Amino acid sequence: MFSPQTVRDRLESPAVQRFIVGVIVINSITIGAETSVTVMDRFGGALHLIDRIALVIFIVELLARVYGYRRAFLKDPWNWFDTIIIGIALIPHSGPASVLRSLRILRALRLVSRVPSMRRVVSALLAAIPGMTSVIALLGLVVYVAAVMATNLFGKLVPEHFGGLPESLFSLFQIMTGEGWPDIAAATMEHHPLAWMFFVGYILLSSFVVLNLFMAVVVSAMDREPDPEMRAVLDELARLHAKVDALQKTPDEPGMTVGGGS
Fold first, then answer.
1. pLDDT tens across 13-22, in order?
2. Can you give the residue range of the structural domain that contains 76?
3. 18, 82, 138, 168 - which has most CB atoms within 10 Å?
4. 175 burial via Cβ count (<10 Å: 0-12, 13-18, 19+)
């Protein structure tokens, strides 16, 4: 019987990690291949078999982690993520739950929890949410102010784009993404030649200033996110420190005296 520590060491070994990543990639490819009628007619049985084998491997790996980490398993949010993904795969795909069959491709997202670099990026994005809230509020304020101005300036001239506040908000959101804004600007400038000043100012403010703040917040969060290798070193130092403290608290053996005096 393997001890929990042995199971943890095996699970964290590079060979096992690469094997699990390989299974995730292969399973993702086979699930995508099942969308082709031609491929299913020729290799449907093999694809279903690979899918079942991959699911068994994922379940075994998850149970091994539960056994190896015990209570620590519940403290890691990535373990919860993997459990939900695998749990969805175990729901029967017949009857009312048949729509859940399409969710099998969510297994590909397990690459995020298995690849340290991806995990670091997602952790940084989650850590950046508080800072991004202020940027989103600022962007919403800019779009709202611009929408009110555009409705008052161009509403009667170009009602299909700026006839009301909802239309203006949608048009300005479209302009912010850079999709089709020359057509909107050209249609407006036919009636209002100086409208280019409004569009240039709005694009500079919304796209090149506010959206760049998003990237700045995310990059700052990634810089604060510790490197996985450094985190492993710090964890190992913490374990060694705990062992040293335990040894210092161990009572002296019988017959031993402090200082070696007689």
1. 889 888 998 9
2. 4-114
3. 168
4. buried
